[in-house]
Target: peptidylprolyl isomerase
Amino acid sequence: RKVQIGVRRRPERCGDRSRRGDVLTLHYSGTLEDGTPFDSSLSRDQPFVFSLGTGQVIKGWDQGLLGMCEGEKRKLVIPPELGRGFWGADTSFSGGAVLIFEVELLKIERRPEL
Model:
């Protein structure tokens, strides 16, 4: 199964789109299918920063956040096999949960090619 991606908002102008190896700064909120919240960068008022496509986050994020523009908002519906090992989250749900994320990409930092 694949990540379901819904674009909530895309800016009129999109210079760069996110790609593997980029460092992304974003806000997110995560819920279970029944709407139960389990994690949010907004509640901490601290954007989340990570390198895309390098295994720092769940596979569903590495897939679902490719090709995003700065300022874009997406809804990701992530099947259990792509959501295992979610970091920093309440682990009271099993690895069999569908995870739903609302994500807003704030900044893309491109690493120079080696």
Notes: The first helix runs from residue 41 to 44. The helical segments are 41-44, 59-64. The longest strand covers residues 99-109.
